[in-house]
Design a protein that fits this description.
With 321 residues, the chain is α/β, with parallel strands linked by helices. It has helices spanning 12-16, 21-28, 44-56, 74-84, 107-116, 148-164, 186-202, 217-227, 249-258, 282-295, 299-313, and strands at residues 3-8, 31-36, 66-69, 88-93, 121-124, 140-143, 168-174, 180-181, 184-185, 207-213, 233-240, 243-244, 263-269.
Length: 321
């Protein structure tokens, strides 16, 4: 049986992120565990606090919610729990930019957890809709760039689509000139995305391709997800030697800042081979790489142009708390 692990840090924002958990637990037929880190396990007040949250947010009757108090720092406590129990699904609220680096549940904790595990996690950002439920009716939005990590994330998205009985939208974000996508040529990503949609349809998952026009995928994709009432965004976070890769993995983390639905983040080492499930195949990655080779001579100019535009426009923080 799956257990949803929900860390809290005493903040109102982390507590508010507990609101949708009963809906998610019912959809997955899962139990719920609450975790508070950097606390004395012998201190009765901490368990009383967690028990009060379980009651206030209707997470389960007395004794039905697993209450965990861990003396370690948040990232270490979370990773330790995941390592000890393969049935856990992490629901990680984050304050995004407002959290202290690795102590409160800020982006630093998200990045540390992503860098230390290969387990997919559900990140609930500061603008999560409190009325969110997994049965919103819209399609799951897969953020796709043609990389092997994105193919792994596609397998996750297909599994969630089947579980929730909904469709998928394979979403590619390109600049307004259609020339460049994140760290990969847009032509390669589009070609791989078309092939992915065909494989998903052949495997019984209804899927469509959508191209969003935007300088920054971290804002363009959450905006599209909100427009189609998506229950979930799925994205790969590319890691290197236990750290979130600055060029690719951080896009998934930044999506969490802006999304009004949870973001399922799939950590993937940058040198990992492509997935071989229904959605992803090694062929997709190789096909994208072949097209990328034809465009590689243009990358320095495009990268410089991207840097100039990003510096001019920035990420753009989401609305204030």
């Amino acid at each position: 049986m799956t257990t949803i692990l929900a860390p809290v840090d005493g903040s109102a924002r982390a507590e508010l992120a507990l609101t949708p958990l009963p809906h998610l637990a019912r959809a997955l037929d899962a139990g719920i565990a609450l975790l508070i880190a950097e606390a004395d396990p012998a201190e009765a007040a901490q368990r009383a606090y967690l028990a009060g949250l379980a009651d206030r947010y209707h997470l389960g009757g007395p004794g039905s919610v697993d209450l965990r108090v861990d003396p370690r720092a948040p990232a270490a406590a979370i990773v330790g729990a995941l390592d000890a129990d393969p049935t856990l699904l992490l629901w990680l609220p984050t304050h995004a930019r407002t959290g202290a680096a690795l102590r409160a549940l800020g982006e630093g904790v998200v990045e540390a957890v992503i860098g230390a595990t290969d387990r997919a996690l559900l990140a609930a950002g500061p603008h999560l809709d409190p009325a969110w439920t997994p049965a919103r009716g819209g399609p799951i939005v897969l953020a796709y760039d043609g990389s092997p990590g994105a193919d792994r994330a596609a397998d996750d998205a297909a599994a969630w689509a089947r579980r929730l009985g909904t469709a998928m939208v394979v979403t590619v974000a390109v600049h307004h000139d259609g020339a460049y996508l994140g760290d990969r040529p847009a032509t390669a990503a589009r070609k791989a995305a078309h092939a992915l949609v065909e494989r998903l349809e052949a495997g019984g998952t209804h899927a469509a391709l959508h191209v969003v026009d935007g300088l920054n995928p971290a804002t363009a994709i959450p905006r599209h997800a909100a427009a189609v009432d998506a229950p979930l965004i799925v994205a790969a976070a590319h890691t290197h030697h236990g750290l979130v890769h600055a060029a690719l993995g951080s896009v998934a983390v930044r999506m969490v800042r802006h999304a009004t639905c949870p973001v399922l983040v799939r950590p993937t080492p940058v040198d990992a081979p492509a997935a071989t499930g229904t959605a992803g195949t090694a062929g997709a990655g190789a096909e994208a790489a072949g097209t990328a080779g034809a465009e590689r001579r243009h990358e320095p100019e495009r990268r410089a142009d991207t840097d100039r535009r990003t510096a001019a426009h920035g990420d753009g923080p989401g609305p204030g708390p």
